[in-house]
Amino acid sequence: MSLRGFVSAQLKRVEHGFETLNLIEVNSRRIIENYDVYAKINSCMDIFPVLKANAYGHGIGEVMSILKKREFPYVVVDGYFEALRVWEVSNQRVLLIGYVDPVNYRFMNLKRCAVAVWDRETVQALGKLKRRVHVHVKVDTGMNRQGVQVHELRDLMKEIMKFPHLDVEGVMSHFADADGESGVSTQKQKKLFNETVAIVKQSAGHEIRYVHIGATAGGAKLDGVVSTAIRLGIGLYGYNPLPDTDPVHEKLMKLRPALTFKTKLAAEKKIKKGCHISYNCTYTAPRDMTIGVLPLGYYEGIDRRLSNKGVVGYKGTDVPILGRVCMNITVIGLPDTGAKRLDDVEVISADTTKKNSVAAMAKLCKTIPYDVLVHLNERVRRVVM
């Protein structure tokens, strides 16, 4: 056997046969229940599950396999390599919403793709393929990020209509402040988006099948805006991005997190009062104590900002993270008796009331749940429960 063949065989054995120390569990029932919450809120609209950023840390392949229980026109990803991950487990159609260098389209299989377009160069690159390509015209209605500006939309549509193989099946935008408390920006975007849909429809000469501006937060606030679909991102995974004071917050109260992150103790040891723990001596033992070593750190996705602040679950209780979170190691405080190597530790809980929930971690780190989730390393094994 060649070295390459040996390595390939070993990788397969490691991925499927080895006992793993670090494990992310994805609850399939909760993914489906979260999907159904949105399907009920907007029963006349299509749902586009968003699987970009490794399905918000949950695993593209794992989430796609769960979603086979439901039918929808598209899943949404950022780029082509994410689409390939989808197609490893499914024939599902994919909407690419990220920017692609136009020279790369000639290498891509677009038979099961739709492409978000907002610039002339992309339109020309797709048009010159002389292959049927479904496009969703993305319009900037106030986010000032991706999207053609409204005053340039008619010119872009003229460019698209030069290529008969380009099928304008969608028009899209994105709310900038759907999870904010004011609502003023969202109302302005709704009005502008309605105008842009009319422009695209008139320029294309036909009805537009997929009209979408709402994501998780905006998807619960689509009154007064033309819409036939929702891009369901963070809500699919069980997180409500709306503040408690938002009038529609209650609509999303049934969302429940689907992810649990578990590990095992790699070591336990006794240390003396006055000993320092981890880099820069930021923690000093106030007494003789027992500590545990976890085989994961910020590379695996444990935010370094949890140093000396965060907790993990051990035997039903919260135990503290001590000292700096390292690249592949985190130290925790343990009860003084009974701890042993390979004991189970719950790093992230799916219980929103726990101090090691994603929401609680995000609050400690002064960030948002998205940030915590997407930094969970892809190499950590994931299983569907």
Structure description:
The chain is an alpha/beta fold and about 375 residues long. The protein is about 25% helix and about 25% strand. It folds into 2 domains: about 30-250, TIM Barrel; about 260-350 and about 350-385, Lyase, Ornithine Decarboxylase, Chain A, domain 1 (Beta Barrel). The protein is built from 10 helices and 20 strands. Strands 3, 4, 5, 6, 7, 8 and 9 form a 7-stranded parallel β-sheet that branches. It has a 5-stranded antiparallel β-sheet with strand order 12-15-18-17-16, with no helix packed on it. Helix 7 (about 155-160) runs parallel beside helix 8. The longest helix has 21 residues, at about 185-205.
Instruction: Specify the CATH architecture of the largest domain.
Output: Alpha-Beta Barrel
CATH topology of the largest domain, which one? TIM Barrel
What is the straight-line distance between the termini?
36 Å
From the alpha carbons, calculate the radius of gyration and give it in angstroms.
Answer: 24 Å
Alpha plus pi helix count = 10
Could you describe the largest sheet, including whether it forms a barrel?
A: 7 strands, parallel
Residue runs with pLDDT of under 50 for 5 or more positions: none
H and E string: HEHEHHEHEEHEEHEHEEEEEEEEEEEHHE
Number of domains: 2
**Tally of extended strands?**
20
On the 0 to 100 scale, the average pLDDT is 95
**Beta-strand percentage range:** 15-25%
